[in-house]
Amino acid sequence: MKRNFGLLSCFVYSMLFSLSLFAQTPSTTLTPQGKQPLSGVSAERLARIDKMLDQTLSANQVPGLVALIVKDGKIVYHEAKGFADVASSTKMAKDQIFRIASQSKAITSTAVMMLWEEGKFRLDDPISKYIPEFANPQILSGFRYGDSSYSTKPSPREITIRHLITHTSGLGYGMIDGNEQMKMIYQKAGIVDLFTTEPVKIGDNIKKLAKLPLHHEPGTKYTYSEGLDVLGYFIEVVSEMPFDQFLQTRIFDPMGMKNTGFYLNDTQAEKLVTIHRKVNNQWESFPVTFYDPDYPKTGAKTFFSGGAGLSSTAEDYAKFLQMYLNGGAYNGTRFLSPTTIKAIMSNQVGDLLGDGGKDYGLAFGLVDANGVAQGGIGSLGTFDWGGYFNTQYFADPVTNTIGILMKQTQGGTGDESSWKFRQMVFSAIE
Q1: Helix pair angle (104-117, 227-239), 10° resolution
Q2: Fewer CB under 10 Å: which end of the chain, C or N?
C-alpha cells in the first residue's frame, strides 16, 4: 500500500514542483530583509515566531541562535539572538558561522549530481568501478567482544553510487553508529567518522573503510552512514580535482556562498559560534571528546568530510536551498537541470523508511502524503535535514518557503524550538 501511495505522492509532487518552476525565474536570488510590505506571509505570525524564540532563550534552553525565513525569494525574517560565546559575552550576529555537520550531505549530493549530468557515471554503477577497494564487499556475520575480531559473508551485490547517496549501502557510521559492534570495528580500524584536526586525507580514510564489513546487503535497508564521505572522495576521482576545490569553484563561488567551506580563514574563524553544553543549568564550551570542537579553524585542515565537515551561515545555506526552489539555477548560473531536480526530489528508498511521513531522495528527506496529513512540517515534497550540532533547514516548493534555524549545542538542553519553529513558519504562510 505504501509503495502505491508513494508512487501517487511522487506523481502529484512532480506536477506541483513543475508548476512551481514555471512560477519563478531561474535568476531568482535572495532579496535582503527590508521595509517592503510583506506578501504571502503574516507579519503578526512572524512576530509570534520571534516571541517564541525569545522565550526559548529566556528559558535558558539555548545560549543563542540565528533564524531565517524566506518567502518567494524574499528574506521576510532574519534575526540573531543571544550569545555566540557565553564565556566572553560575545553577542550572536546574523552572519555568524555554524558547523553544519550533516547539512553538508545535501551539498555533496548536489556535487555528485552535477557530475552525473556531465555523463561521468551512472547512478547504478558499482562504486568499485571508481574506487577498486570496494570490490567484493562483505557483510558482518559474527563478532567477538573479547578482541573485536569478526567474521563475514560475501554480499550478493556490490555497493552502487545510488546506494551511497541514499544511505542504503550497508556502510556504518563509526562513533555515532547505532550498532556497538560496528563502532568497535571502525574504531579499531582507525576510521575518521566526522571531524578531525589530524593530518588525514579522505582518500586514505575511504580506502580503509572499503575493507570493513557492511551492516547488511546493499539496497535492502536504510542505514544512516558514511556514504557521503565516500562520495566526497569519489568526486575527487571523477572530477580529477580536490573535493574542497570542486565545491568552492563549482558551487560556493558562483552561488555567492562566501562563508561556507570545510575550514575557516582567520577572519571567518572569529565568526565561528562556540559549541555549548548545559552543566548545572549553566552554559560552558563543549570539551574535546572524540573530536576537537575547533576543527574548522585549527589543526591540519586536510580532511574534507562530505557527510559532516562544512561550516556555513544561515544566509549562505538559504542561497543553496533557493537554487533548488528555482529549479536548479541561482545568481545567473545553472547548477542542475529541472529534470535532474525532479529525480533528486523523488522517493529513492521505497518502503524502507516506513509510514512515518518521510521519504528520502537523492539529497534530502522528503515530506510524503502521510507527513502532510500529520500537519506542521510542510507541503508534499518539502525537503529538509539537520546537523549534529543542532542546526536545521526545510524548503517547501509548493509555498516557495525556506526556514533555517541555526544553533550550536550538544547534549540535553530542554530545547523545543526546532519543531515549534517549523510548525509556526508554515502557520504563517498566507
Answers
A1: 40
A2: N
Q: What pLDDT, in 10s, does the model give residues 335-383?
A: 999 999 999 999 999 999 999 999 999 999 999 999 999 999 999 999 9
Torsion sign (Cα): 204, 209, 212, 218:
negative
Rounded CA gap, 217 and 195, in Å?
A: 27
77: nearest Cα among 67, 91, 87, 64: 67
The pLDDT value recorded for residue 36 is 67
Q: Which of 399, 325, 392 is nearest to 67 (CA)?
A: 392
> How long, in residues, is the chain?
430
Q: Mapping DSSP to helix (H, G, I), strand (E, B) and coil, where does residue 365 land?
A: strand
* Residue type at position 31: T
Strands (E), 263-372: 276-279, 282-285, 311-312, 329-330, 333-334, 358-360, 365-367
> CA-CA distance, 36 to 198, in Å (whole number)?
49
Determine how many CB atoms are found less than 10 A away from the CB of residue 22: 9
Rounded to a whole number of angstroms, the CA Rg of the chain reads 21
- Is there a contact between 364 and 385 (Cβ–Cβ < 8 Å)? yes
On whether the CB atoms of residues 345 and 364 are closer than 8 A, the answer is yes
Calculate the alpha carbon distances from 415 to 39, 90, 341, 408, 426 in Å: 31, 21, 34, 12, 20
8 A C-beta contact, residue 381 and residue 366: yes
Interatomic CA distance for residues 85 and 63, integer angstroms: 8
Model confidence pLDDT, tens digit, residues 199-243 = 999 999 999 999 999 999 999 999 999 999 999 999 999 999 999
Q: What is the pLDDT of residues 124-163, one digit of tens each?
A: 999 999 999 999 999 999 999 999 999 999 999 999 999 9
